[in-house]
């Protein structure tokens, strides 16, 4: 086991380097970089009578000011030197400083996590708490009116994009053309600090109802159908027929024999789904409901060419993704002893 884990950890290094190298190389050829955007802001500020970035104000942006901007953002160094500096910082888990927000990338990520955690964790738990029992019920009643009607409902929900459903919910329940039952923005009210504990819980749940509904409805279909198909596949295997022939009750056959084997695909996906919940960022949902999370941060960083935020978050999320994939493989072996690490290496 330890040799397999060591091999996987060592393989993470070239994968991580490849992702960072390609992204860094692409960045070098993208027009409208931070220096150009800062020069535009400087020129605009000079026209309005003030100069940002602490630079001297006069008409136009001369070569000296451009050189100052390049030095400010580190673009006065050759690309290869900047690349090695970036790797040395990342090796120390120093993600750098944002060009435009004047904060460390770590502090930016931490400040945006509450929104993304709220959306991600609620989506994760509600999806599995509803979809797994529903998938089992559909497998047991395969072909029945309940199975057909529930399939239609979850597939319709899957077909509707989350932001379209969000707009519909706002129109119906957010003070649009009909009812105003839920707030339009934020995770909490302005007077949240003055509320009692019960009041804070109610206020929080009141605010997240619409965005969570818009996010979770489209997730039901995949988990539900995966659960149903996994159970159907196990129900028709020989060991189930043998258990029934021995006189075991249908309930005992289902929960003691079928359940464990059928849940393998879902259990293996738990680590990735759970860890991913902490870094879930839905740009459209966050924009629609005025939630300042990681999705909006990533989009704004790309648009403004805030390269430390782009590369820092890419490094962190890629590292977490690789580690989560390893944990998923380990969970597979832990849940099913028939799987050996030698088989995973092939």
TrEMBL record:
Start and end residues of each ABC transmembrane type-1 domain: 113-328
Location(s), subcellular: Cell membrane
Membrane disposition: Multi-pass membrane protein
Record field: transmembrane: 9-30, 119-140, 152-184, 204-227, 262-289, 309-335
Main location group: membrane
Cytoplasm keyword on record: no
Record-level GO BP terms: microcin transport; transmembrane transport
Pfam families to which the protein is assigned, alphabetical: BPD_transp_1
Top-level lineage group: Bacteria
Alphabetized UniProt keyword annotations: Cell membrane, Membrane, Transmembrane, Transmembrane helix, Transport
Entry-linked Gene3D superfamilies: MetI-like
Any one cellular-component term (Gene Ontology): plasma membrane
Family: Belongs to the binding-protein-dependent transport system permease family.
Stated name of the protein: ABC transporter permease subunit
Species for this entry: Trinickia terrae
């Amino acid at each position: 086991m330890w040799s397999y884990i060591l091999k996987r950890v060592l393989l993470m290094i070239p994968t991580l380097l490849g992702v960072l190298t390609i992204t860094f190389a692409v960045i070098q050829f993208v027009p409208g970089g931070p220096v150009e955007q800062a020069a535009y802001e400087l020129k605009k500020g000079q026209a309005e009578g003030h100069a940002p970035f602490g630079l001297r104000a006069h008409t136009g942006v001369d070569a000296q000011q451009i050189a100052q901007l390049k030095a400010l953002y580190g673009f006065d160094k050759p690309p290869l030197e900047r690349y090695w500096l970036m790797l040395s910082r990342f090796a120390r888990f120093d993600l750098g400083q944002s060009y435009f927000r004047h904060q460390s990338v770590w502090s930016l990520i931490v400040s945006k996590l509450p929104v993304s955690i709220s959306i991600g964790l609620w989506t994760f738990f509600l999806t599995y708490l509803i979809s797994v029992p529903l998938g089992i019920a559909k497998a047991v009643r395969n072909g029945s009116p309940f199975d057909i009607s529930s399939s239609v409902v979850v597939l319709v929900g899957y077909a509707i994009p989350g932001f379209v459903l969000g707009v519909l919910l706002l129109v119906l329940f957010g003070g649009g053309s009909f009812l105003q039952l839920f707030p339009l923005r934020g995770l909490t009210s302005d007077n949240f600090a003055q509320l009692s504990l019960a009041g804070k819980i109610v206020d929080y749940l009141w605010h997240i109802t619409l965005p969570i509904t818009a996010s979770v409805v489209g997730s039901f279909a995949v988990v539900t159908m995966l659960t149903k198909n996994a159970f159907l596949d196990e129900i028709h295997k020989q060991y189930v027929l043998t258990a029934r022939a021995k006189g075991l009750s249908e309930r005992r056959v289902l929960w003691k024999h079928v359940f464990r084997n059928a849940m393998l695909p879902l259990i293996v996906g738990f680590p990735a789904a759970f860890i991913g919940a902490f870094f879930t960022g839905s740009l459209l949902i966050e924009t629609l409901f005025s939630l300042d999370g990681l999705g909006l941060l990533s989009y704004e960083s790309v648009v403004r060419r805030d390269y430390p935020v782009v590369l820092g978050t890419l490094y962190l999320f890629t590292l977490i993704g690789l580690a989560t994939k390893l944990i998923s493989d380990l969970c597979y072996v832990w849940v099913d002893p028939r799987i050996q690490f030698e088989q995973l290496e092939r």
